UniProtKB/TrEMBL annotation:
<comment type="similarity">
    <text>Belongs to the short-chain dehydrogenases/reductases (SDR) family.</text>
</comment>
<dbReference type="InterPro" id="IPR020904">
    <property type="entry name" value="Sc_DH/Rdtase_CS"/>
</dbReference>
<keyword id="KW-0560">Oxidoreductase</keyword>
<protein>
    <submittedName>
        <fullName>SDR family oxidoreductase</fullName>
    </submittedName>
</protein>
<dbReference type="InterPro" id="IPR036291">
    <property type="entry name" value="NAD(P)-bd_dom_sf"/>
</dbReference>
<dbReference type="InterPro" id="IPR002347">
    <property type="entry name" value="SDR_fam"/>
</dbReference>
<dbReference type="Pfam" id="PF00106">
    <property type="entry name" value="adh_short"/>
</dbReference>
């Protein structure tokens, strides 16, 4: 299988025509994924709501790495957005060899105190759009017999999380879907990997309306090593990966504790 040249440490044999689609590319992990992939001589399609930060990133990557970068501003939380994006790329004859399904956001607070429309919007982006993109582009990859899909789940996917109830549930879906698709797609020459970051220095907390506890601050990682961990796991053909040693310990501890204890522990960790 040709694995789209996803090697973090460098690979001179990467095809210059290999193209990666990165969603949520205007900030946070999306920026890091785009930078790492451009450094591997991969052409890019950047997708997010905001055009301006993507145009700046695209200009920087073109100048620094000499790669082709297409900017596609679109709100993936809108119904039918994934299909519209695919049609746009087909019209431009852009073939996607790798999909980095990174777009998503979280909501912090008690479930009934959170506006329902925001929760539904989050579910639309974190679950529905991710599923549609994986199906639409994964179908093409399977037909060609090659491709890579990276899904961004979360450390919160491993247990129920009070004050992040719906968000953690969306990420549990992503992890479960990704691991199942890993087995389904493998025989068709496509690698599917789910990355589970812990708390990361991005704009997530501000968007979620959350304040960081001292315990959570101790577990915080920079976005670059998180993105590197995801691409490395994808290149190694893994079903899933957790970024960071301490985060791996947290996930492992869930195997040894009852779910009631997991909920109580996460409630303390997430409290400001």
């Amino acid at each position: 299988m040709e694995n789209a040249g996803v090697i973090v440490t460098g690979n001179p044999d990467v095809r210059s025509t290999t193209t990666a689609l990165v969603t949520g590319a205007s900030s946070g992990l999306g920026l890091e994924f785009a930078e790492l992939l451009a450094a591997q001589n991969m052409d890019l399609v950047l997708v997010a709501r905001r055009r301006e930060p993507m145009e700046k990133l695209a200009s920087d990557l073109r100048r620094k790495y000499g790669v082709f970068v297409q900017v596609e501003p679109i709100d993936l939380a809108q119904s039918g957005a994934a299909a519209r994006l695919k049609s746009t790329l087909d019209e431009k004859a852009l073939r996607i060899d790798m999909l980095v399904n990174n777009a998503g956001f979280g909501l912090h607070g008690d479930f009934v105190d959170t506006p329902l429309e925001r929760t539904v919007e989050m579910i639309q982006l974190n679950i529905t759009a991710l599923t549609e993109l994986s199906h639409i582009f994964g179908r093409d990859m399977a037909a060609r017999g090659s491709g890579d899909i990276l899904l961004i789940a979360s450390l919160l996917a491993f247990q129920p999380v009070p004050t992040y109830a719906a968000y953690a549930a969306t990420k549990a879906y992503v992890l479960s879907l990704g691991e199942a698709l890993h087995d389904e797609f493998r025989s068709r020459g496509v690698t599917v990997t789910s990355l589970c970051p812990g708390h990361t220095e991005t704009g997530f907390d501000a968007a979620a309306g959350a304040h960081i506890s001292a315990a959570l601050r101790m577990l915080t990682m920079k976005p670059r090593p998180v993105a590197e961990a995801g691409l490395r796991a994808l290149s190694q053909g893994k079903a899933s990966a957790i970024a960071g040693f301490m985060n791996n310990l947290v996930a492992f501890s869930n195997r040894l504790t009852p779910r009631s204890m997991q909920r109580a522990s996460m409630k303390r960790v997430m409290a400001p």
